[in-house]
Write a structure and sequence with these properties.
Layout (H helix, E strand, L loop, with lengths): L1 H28 L4 H6 L6 H10 L6 H13 L13 H36 L4 H15 L2 H15 L22 H8 L4 H36 L2 H8 L4 H38 L5 H10 L3 H29 L6
């Protein structure tokens, strides 16, 4: 198991280097000068411009900037935002709990609905129920996030007025953050109605973000279940007279969950990518909206550091999934 773990960990090194190169190059391909954007309409003298170029290291050759950037990353320095003047790492961990809260709620909803839906579709293969579930999953997978989010806002926030439009909690509530997770902090605050307000703000973003992972999990579960249901040990369990629920739940689903767990782990990247649009639509103060704002402001340090940190989170989750996969199925360790 240790050899398997080390081999998987070794694969992260070239991946991280590749992400660093992409993160460094990406923002510099976008037209615009961060120094001039920082000056705004006030403008600045040529002398002041050259001073700021030297301060942020933009006057050096590109390859020197890259090596300095990598060197700082290796020492744990992800840079300082040109706009806010705060360390990128500090801003990331301040905003990351909001994205984690949204993503965890989304993956819980996607898993809680997707796995039973996939199992039901497999058991009822070929029936109208199977076709309805898979048709709905295809529609959910095909819907653009920005369109789906705006549609839900118009219906539930505009017409029905059941949910808030944006934010994490109503402005009438204020309490110092303890964990950074609004659901937990609202409970700890002891303010009446704070938790309900936090939940109501979380509902629509969770539904929007969970839609695509839910569809993928449902389809993967159905495919895995159909493959397992045809195995000899399942037919043997049925021939012994075991209850159908026991055969499906204990014998079939347990083995079908192996590829499903991998699929759930891979959806972390989808969630973080989808969070960029979802957080922008719902003005959710997480890393997705932070990254979008930073790109528009050409904040090199934030975009570079943010991409690296997001990639690191995804790689760590995938490593955990590989380890779990190895624990569930020992044959893949060799």
């Amino acid at each position: 198991m240790l050899k398997f773990l080390l081999s998987r960990f070794a694969l992260l090194i070239p991946t991280f280097i590749g992400v660093a190169i992409v993160a460094f190059s990406f923002i510099r391909m976008i037209p615009g000068d961060p120094i001039l954007l920082l000056a705004g309409e006030r403008g600045m003298t040529e002398e002041r411009y050259q001073q700021l170029q030297a301060v942020y290291g933009f006057d050096q050759p590109i390859y020197i900037q890259f090596f300095n950037y990598v060197g700082d990353i290796l020492t744990g320095d992800f840079g300082t935002s040109v706009v806010t003047k705060r360390p990128v790492l500090e801003e990331f961990f301040t905003l990351f709990p909001a994205t984690i809260e949204l993503s965890v709620c989304a993956i819980i909803v996607a898993t809680a609905i997707g796995i039973p839906a996939g199992v039901l579709a497999a058991v009822k293969r070929g029936t109208w129920l199977d076709q309805s579930i898979m048709g709905t999953a295809l529609v959910g997978y095909s819907m653009p996030i920005f369109w789906w989010g705006l549609l839900l806002i118009i219906l539930f926030s505009g017409i029905l007025q059941w949910t808030p439009v944006s934010g994490r909690i109503s402005l009438i509530y204020f309490f110092p953050p303890v964990t950074g997770f609004m659901l937990i902090d609202s409970l700890l605050s002891g303010q009446a109605g704070a938790f309900k307000s936090a939940v109501s703000h979380l509902v629509l973003p969770t539904i929007v973000l969970a839609t695509i992972p839910l569809a993928v999990i449902a389809r993967q579960t159905r495919s895995a279940m159909l493959e397992v249901l045809g195995e000899d040990y399942v037919r043997t369990a049925r021939s012994k007279g075991l209850a159908p629920n026991r055969v499906i739940g204990l014998h079939a689903l347990r083995n079908a969950l192996i590829p499903v767990i991998t699929t759930i782990g891979l959806q972390v990247g989808v969630l973080l990518a989808g969070a960029i649009l979802t957080e922008t639509i719902f003005s959710w103060p997480g890393i997705g909206k932070w990254m979008v704002d930073s790109v528009s402001k050409r904040d090199y340090a934030v975009v570079q550091g943010g991409l690296l940190l997001i990639a690191a989170v995804i790689m760590i989750v995938n490593l955990i999934v590989d380890v779990l996969y190895g624990l569930i199925n020992p044959r893949i360790r060799y």
